[in-house]
Design goal:
69% helix, 5 strands, globular, 230 residues, 9 helices, two-stranded antiparallel sheet, mainly alpha
């Protein structure tokens, strides 16, 4: 069983025990919906790639469902700034994956770690750095891997190589899963630290909202501010 499927199983167990409830709540998803999506991704990953013609194919669990989820989160993003960051995170993640593929050895067996794991980690960290919020980081992690594969495929075709382009298929499935989860975990851990810092250091002047410190509106009452924070 690949690392992507193992990660999904581990994530499902954490969800059943309520460990991830806070994260999914902040991504505008309840536990049942999140568990359903994880199940669909797992099942979709077992379905053979769907051929699109010209040696191009797409995987249900590794591309179709993750892309649909990214579109949903993009629409649900709290601010225009968050959407812009999601776009930049996706582009930056795609660039990192593409250049990593060009720099890493062509023979995976010569490497200590599977390059797929490296792609997922790089895309996930890059997505957080550019996305910062949980939603934009997740979008950037997922789309970064897919855009990196697409870019590599296009470059190969321009060089006269009819290499297969498999969106979310084979090893890309693992990289997609890893990148999305790593990006969200980074956003949660660092975001939680920043929130605590905001409460302790700037509680009377600023509040933490959608990944940003924003001034508290002094024209409203304390009760209204407290209600807004809830």
């Amino acid at each position: 069983m690949s690392i992507g499927f193992i990660t999904l199983i581990a994530l499902s167990l954490l969800m059943l025990f309520g460990v991830t409830s806070r994260i999914f709540d902040r991504m505008r998803m309840n536990d049942r919906v999140a568990l359903l999506i994880v199940g669909l991704v797992f099942a979709g990953g077992l379905i053979p790639d769907i051929p699109l013609g010209n040696n191009v194919s797409i995987n249900v669990g590794g591309a179709i469902i993750p892309i649909a989820l990214c579109v949903y989160l993009f629409i649900k993003a709290g601010t225009t700034k968050e959407r812009v960051r999601a776009i930049f995170a996706s582009l930056a993640g795609g660039a990192i994956v593409f250049f990593a593929g060009r720099l890493l050895p062509n023979e995976p067996e010569t490497m200590v770690f599977d390059p797929i794991i490296i792609y997922g980690i790089l895309a996930g960290f890059t997505a957080y750095l550019f996305g910062r919020s949980r939603r934009s980081a997740f979008i950037g992690g997922i789309m970064g891997v897919l855009l990196g594969d697409l870019t590599q495929g296009i470059v190969s075709r321009t060089q006269g190589l009819n290499t297969p382009i498999r969106f979310g298929g084979a090893g890309a499935f693992d990289a997609v899963i890893l990148s999305g989860i790593i990006a969200v975990v980074m956003a949660e851990l660092i975001g939680e630290t920043r929130e605590r810092f905001a409460k302790e250091k700037t509680a009377d002047k600023y509040e933490y909202d959608h990944g940003e410190f924003v001034p508290i509106n002094k024209s409203v009452s304390v009760e209204e501010n407290d209600e807004h924070k809830k």
